[in-house]
Amino acid sequence: MDILQLTYFKKIAELENVSKASEELMVAQPSLSKVIKTLETELDTKLFDRVGKKIVLNNNGRILLAHTNLILQNIEDARAEIMDSDSKLTGTVTISMQAATRMLPDILLGFRRLYPTIKIVVKKQLELATNIETDFHIFSSRSPVSDDNTITLLKEDCLMAMAKNHRLSDLEFVDMRDFINDEFIILQDHKSLSDMLEEYCHDAGFIPNISLECDHQNSVLSLIENNLGVSIIPLKTWNVKDHDGIILKPIRNKNSVRYINLRQRSNGYLSKAALLFKDYLIDLFASI
Question: In terms of CB atoms within 10 Å, which of 47, 128, 145, 282 comes out highest?
Answer without folding.
Answer: 47
